[in-house]
Amino acid sequence: MTRSDGGSSAGATTILIVDDHALVREGLRWVLEVHADLDVVDEAGDSATAVAKAASERPDVVLLDVEIPGDDPVVTVRRIREVSPDSAVVILSMYDSPDLLRRLIAAGVRAYLLKSVGREELVAAIRKARDGSGSVLLSVSGQSLVQVQNAESAILSHVELEILQLAAEAMTNAQIARRLDLTEATVKSHLRRIFAKLGAVSRIDAVNKAVAASLVTLPHDRLVPRPRRPPF
């Protein structure tokens, strides 16, 4: 199903909807196209069709359900990004899964939203995803990741994840700098941003929160102590 009026509005955000239920696709189209700046250019019901249409349409945003027939969702995201690198992938999911979330973030999605989100939050996420900022928008439970203000989360960049993983392995700033070919000052700067994004007060606190969100893993021979709670 394609747009019935014959084409996209000039300057509108073009969207490819991917879901295996026609009724869901129709509902999403209705929700989105009441906004003049959003234009659904095509639909797909499986991963292979999604990749093919992403390649032909080059949409600004691919709105992707994770339970479509075909490839694993992470594979689908990677293939979409290969054929249409400028397309922002926004995930819609029934699953509040930290592991799936982590894998999809690593694959390059720009937003991960549970299907329980409201229409205003969905529209805002699509607009934000197209803007091209470095952050990933999330609307999931507190168990899946650390939440920040306004139900958005400033997810760690690839370099920040590397630094935090090495910190979890008890490396010093100097050791991390040597491993990643960075200056020690750059490592410290990244750590400050990591603390701010996770709402952490120390390296241990940051590592604990990242482990809880499945963003990093601890070596089997190392346990990170929890921060002491103040006495009552």
Automatic annotation (TrEMBL):
<keyword id="KW-0597">Phosphoprotein</keyword>
<dbReference type="GO" id="GO:0003677">
    <property type="term" value="F:DNA binding"/>
</dbReference>
<dbReference type="InterPro" id="IPR039420">
    <property type="entry name" value="WalR-like"/>
</dbReference>
<dbReference type="InterPro" id="IPR011006">
    <property type="entry name" value="CheY-like_superfamily"/>
</dbReference>
<dbReference type="GO" id="GO:0006355">
    <property type="term" value="P:regulation of DNA-templated transcription"/>
</dbReference>
<keyword id="KW-0238">DNA-binding</keyword>
<dbReference type="InterPro" id="IPR001789">
    <property type="entry name" value="Sig_transdc_resp-reg_receiver"/>
</dbReference>
<dbReference type="InterPro" id="IPR000792">
    <property type="entry name" value="Tscrpt_reg_LuxR_C"/>
</dbReference>
<dbReference type="InterPro" id="IPR058245">
    <property type="entry name" value="NreC/VraR/RcsB-like_REC"/>
</dbReference>
<protein>
    <submittedName>
        <fullName>Chemotaxis response regulator protein-glutamate methylesterase</fullName>
    </submittedName>
</protein>
<feature type="modified residue" description="4-aspartylphosphate">
    <location>
        <position position="65"/>
    </location>
</feature>
<feature type="domain" description="HTH luxR-type">
    <location>
        <begin position="149"/>
        <end position="214"/>
    </location>
</feature>
<dbReference type="Pfam" id="PF00196">
    <property type="entry name" value="GerE"/>
</dbReference>
<dbReference type="InterPro" id="IPR016032">
    <property type="entry name" value="Sig_transdc_resp-reg_C-effctor"/>
</dbReference>
<dbReference type="Pfam" id="PF00072">
    <property type="entry name" value="Response_reg"/>
</dbReference>
<feature type="domain" description="Response regulatory">
    <location>
        <begin position="14"/>
        <end position="130"/>
    </location>
</feature>
<dbReference type="GO" id="GO:0000160">
    <property type="term" value="P:phosphorelay signal transduction system"/>
</dbReference>
